[in-house]
Amino acid sequence: MSIIADTTRRGWKSQLLRHPNFLIGTVLTGMLILVALVSLVWTPHAFDAVAITQRMQGPSAAHWLGTDHFGRDIATRLMIGASNSIMVGVVAVGIGLVIGVSLGLLAAARGGWVDDLVARGSDVVFAFPAIVSAILITAIFGPGAVNAIIAIGIFNVPVFARVARGAARQVWGQEYARAGLAIGKSPSAVTRDHILPNIAPVLIVQATIQFAVAILAEAALAYLGLGTQPPAPSWGRMLFDAQTFMTLDPKLAILPGLAIALAVLGLNLLGDGLRDALDPRLRTERIG
After folding, report:
1. What average pLDDT does the segment 64-84 reach?
2. Partner of 150 at 20 to 30 A CA spacing, among 56, 138, 144, 268?
């Protein structure tokens, strides 16, 4: 068994290294994470430093990407916007993973009315997209990054619940899962020892995809004024502020838009590469 497992491990690792989408996605995602980490300890300027006399300047030694309509350094605001986007993605996806996967595993293990309840509950939550949920939440508690994260996290719960439920039900149909019950293991023990480890690759891929969705949703909510509030930098808020100056200084919109596009593209390509390498059905189809 160890030889087979080692061979399988080497197989998907070599597949990843040969997958162009995975390599490109890793580079783009790595750059996003690197910029976010650097912004935690250093930025070229203070993100809220206003200099009206230097407003809407082009790139220079002092301001690498120029300044915005308040004279604030664009590079600094993009860097901090990257860390904010990652923070929103990590927390929102974490909420979806913890709650959604738990519900999906419970539904697959119990079946019956529990399975029906989780499935129907997921359908109800799906009827309210992240932006609609955010509008409802902010109408009650007010706009802000925390409420936006909660709204995106709630949207992620049924996504992970469905993925975990479907993948777990397939594993429950395997002989080794039924054998675990036959020898006296509880459903929770079988889920912990056999079900969850076998569906982990699927969850990893889905988490990568939902991370990209979370970044897009956060940018959209900030653009609508429901997410990160000024003066804290946000890519979506930068796009909103730039729309008034599109003809005067297009870079104010191009740069945050490009940052969003590259971040989402990198995560989607990374997820695509991981899916192709970790999904055994796809590997079987390629071999066949």
Report:
1. 95
2. 268
